[in-house]
Specification:
Blueprint lengths: L1 H17 L35
């Protein structure tokens, strides 16, 4: 019984961890359209549906 509980917790943990990953793609440019070197981008909150592409 204890082994089954541990297995269930592991599955739930793996599923929740993979559900929070996605790929963010794009370009960071300044006002003139020039690329910004060494820019850091953070996604603070995803707002939308299931399609994150």
């Amino acid at each position: 019984m204890k082994s089954l509980l541990i297995q269930i917790l592991l599955v739930v943990g793996v599923v929740s961890a993979t559900a929070q990953t996605f790929t963010l793609q794009g370009r960071v440019t300044d006002e003139q359209g020039n690329p910004v070197e060494l820019a850091t981008v953070s996604c603070l909150k995803h707002q939308g549906g299931a399609d994150k592409s």
